Amino acid sequence: MSESVNEAGGAGPSHRGVEIGVAVAMAILALIGIYGSLQNGVGWGPDGPRAGFFPFYVALIVLISCVVNLATVVRRMDGTKLFAEWGQLRQVFSVIVPTAIYVGLVPYTGIYVASALLIAVFMRWFGRYSWLVVALIAILVPILTFLTFEIWFLVPLPKGPLENWLGY
Amino acid sequence: MLQDIANLFHGFAVVAQPFNFLLMVVGIVLGVIVGVLPGLGGANGIAILLPLTFSMSPTSAIIMLSCIYWGALFGGAITSILFNIPGEPWSVATTFDGYPMGQKGKAGEALTAAFTSSFVGALFAVIVITLVAPLVANFALRFGPPEIFSVYFLAFCSFVGLSKEPPFKTIASMMLGFGLGAVGLDQVTGQLRMTFGFPEMLNGFDFLIAVIGLFGIGEILLTMEEGLSFRGTAAKLNPKVVFQTWKILPKFWLLSLRSCLIGCWMGISPAGATPASFMSYGIAKRISKRGHLFGTGEIEGVVAPETAAHAAGTSALLPMISLGVPGSPTAAVLLGGLLIWGLQPGPLLFVEQKDFVWGLIASMYMGNIVGLLIVLTCVPLFASILKIPFSVIAPIIMVFCAIGAYTVHNNTFDVVMMVVFGIAGYFMKKTNYPLAPMVLAIVLGDKAEEAFRQSLLASQGSLSVFWSNGLVSTIMTLGLIALFWSQIQSGWNRLRAAHKGLRPAE
User: What is the C-alpha to C-alpha distance for residues B70 and B370, in angstroms, rounded to an integer?
Assistant: First the structure.
């Protein structure tokens, strides 16, 4: 990905580079789709169009569109426009990383414990709240969620060792 | 016709039952909160709250969920006017004049104007739905597979033609949606498609997961990137200001009517509320005598986009209940709700589920009246929600998104997919790939494919089946016109310019 600097002095990946990246990523998905459809058969079977028929043409159109989009970006867009500054991207990643860990934790700890941790991390890290406030909200929100979903609306959510230990 | 009116009154009776009425109020309050909070919008707000309705009757459930939608439509205006932060994409145009009005100390008037015009727009659209939807549904009962496919074709072509994004980006995003929708079990042959041996892929990609990820997580990432600071006007709304504004508003009846028509047209064709609000604002600016003052705090600049946005948002439900083709992502989520509650969306709803359909239509009338009263009286309360810092709100929204995603199929893999969709949504939004067509394609993919394959089966593979009778050819041709709309328009303009240009040269 090419780097560029804008007038304000902030640096970051260029918008053009990201556009190309998105188009290429979509084209790869399209190729996977085409490959998958070919495995199912894209022709005419004894009972009409075969399973891969529709997805094959759909993926083909995605691929063609990606080529057109890519061509437009390469020919028309100049490389000086920023996608975002590195500082901004760091903010974005500082959300993605805890969220990814959170999602990974859910199957093991259950959703309530993981949620408490996520809220605590966010509040402490971004909000710089005192531990007391952090603990209060991080514990209250999952308890309220538990009451709403499990008790009042009877919707079961993933539970872990803590809930088992408490007898749920 | 008379039968419809009787049905409508029966619908009112259903909505007026204490439990349903309570759900309506709860729905609107939740909806306004959803509308006010950045990162939560109508579509993903409803998707997240969908699990709460699993244990309700379909009629009660749709009343609550549609009221969340009305609430969200109202809520977007509050933050636009007070904080210059559009809570929803369709309230971006409201910030142009709403925020300057707030800065001049006329926040009360701007809010009253916004809420009242929203109400007028919605009411207009509901009346259109009441009158037109039963006719459309009745007509659509005769549709065979080619006609059904042609309706989908028209809907998706309008996306390409009416979108302000580059057409090939719209097509790429839409077709990707169809592709994702095709993953999993093939409805017709029972074969597995594109699962590549991963058991997690068997169920395919549920569009609710996509909605929660693309709109919920994606939106939070965008908000984090921009960095939020709330510095706004104090929210006060006393009855005197409300009544004074109501006295001025009737002067703009022509503007309102025009905005209503724009809104309904854009809502029924799946362009949606956001372009409707911009278009209405743009036209108002061009036509109004005070047009040159737009952007400095003109009340007309609030009335035009709000009326159109609400009319569009409401009329997007017309094709959803009469044809089973949602006009917006939010309507798509409601349609997904129907499937979960065990109802088959489409024209048969009007025959088989009278209580449900007319309950929904009646709740649109009641919901908007109750909504107007709630927002007018509780503005300061809702505005204070934005005082809660984002570092507290963001993880809580995240948790609710995860719960919403999990409860769709009781599957933790879906929660992982939600995050993947969220990251994809962030990049797609930043690079101007429209998300709505993708979501709609995931929802309608199976049905569109089924209709397409059944049509081809009947015709032994010849595409001429889509031009085999007057009805289906008309819809298909309309679709093609919609597809090439921008080319037709620019070609026409060039032709006219060339024509004009020739004469002085002679």
Answer: 10
A48: alpha, beta or left? (left if phi > 0; alpha if psi -120 to 50): left
Reported ipTM: the value is 0.89
Count how many domains chain A has: 2
Residue ranges of A 70-129 with Cβ closer than 8 A to chain B = 72, 83-84, 88-89, 91-92, 94-96, 99-100, 102-104, 106-107, 111, 115, 118-119, 121-123, 125-127, 129
Choose among B156, B35, B415, B31: nearest CA to A110. Answer: B415
Same domain, A59 and A107: no
Whole-angstrom distance, CA of residue A31 vs CA of residue A74 = 21
Residue A3 pLDDT class (50, 70, 90 cuts): very low
Mutation target among B212, B225, B449 for the A interface, most CBs of A within 10 A:
B225
Q: Is A81 part of any domain?
A: no
Q: For the segment B488-500, what is each residue's pLDDT rounded down to a tens digit?
A: 888 888 888 887 7
A155 lies in which domain range?
A: 86-166
The last residue of a domain, from among A49, A76, A103 = A76
pTM above 0.90, yes or no: no
Q: Among A29, A57, A76, give the residue marking a domain's end.
A: A76
pLDDT digits (tens, 9 = 90+) for B378-390: 887 887 777 777 7
Count of CB pairs separated by less than 8 Å, A with B: 181
Instruction: Provide the domain count of chain B.
Output: 1
Main-chain phi, psi angles of B142, to 5 degrees = -85, 0
